[in-house]
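As a warm-up, study this chain.
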Amino acid sequence: MEDSEEKDNSKSILFYKRNLSEVPCFRKSFMTGIMSGIGLGVGHFMATSKPQTSYHVAFGSFTLITLGVWFNCRYHWTAERIRERQFKDALRIKEVEEGSESVKLPLPERKDLKEV
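Now compare it with the structure written out below.
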């Protein structure tokens, strides 16, 4: 059992005591940025044969594309979590209104769910 824990810990990358493999959208955004940066850098070098500016194009495109994909993915991830929470709250309200005996939790006091 300790061997499997050691394998999991050896593959994890920690940044400020947080495992980066558990951060939503991290892998997708960096892989997209890396591949786009390499592609645009090589494409610019093939077109102009200037290594210095090709490096700048590659690094700039990596940075911009990584940040763009990161913020877009995190926005959609957060919106999905909000919808899930609203759905769970609406189900809890519906169970309480129908008189289910299994629900012992208090109703959430949220104005946006009063109409559901």
